[in-house]
Amino acid sequence: MRIGSGTDDSVAQYLVRESQFFIEWIIPDMDLETDITFASELVDLQRLLSRWKLSWSDLWLNEKEPQEVAMLAQQWCNYIHG
Length: 82
Known about the structure:
The protein has one domain (6-80). The protein contains 4 helices and no strands. The chain has helices spanning 6-26, 32-54, 56-59, 64-80. It is elongated, with a radius of gyration of 14 Å.
């Protein structure tokens, strides 16, 4: 699936926002004494998702950007799921 046109674009934007909500929901329940590093990394992910959301239309203007977004998203997914 190529993100950036029509329905795919809407689904991707929705998933970015859902990911932001998920991070907002889990960080307050974390034990920051033992999970501070992971919580900090989730904050970094939250910032990345916010940057993507703010510049969404610009991300898809050239062919390299969507590939980079997909690669970063996959890396984060792999990291979070262990």
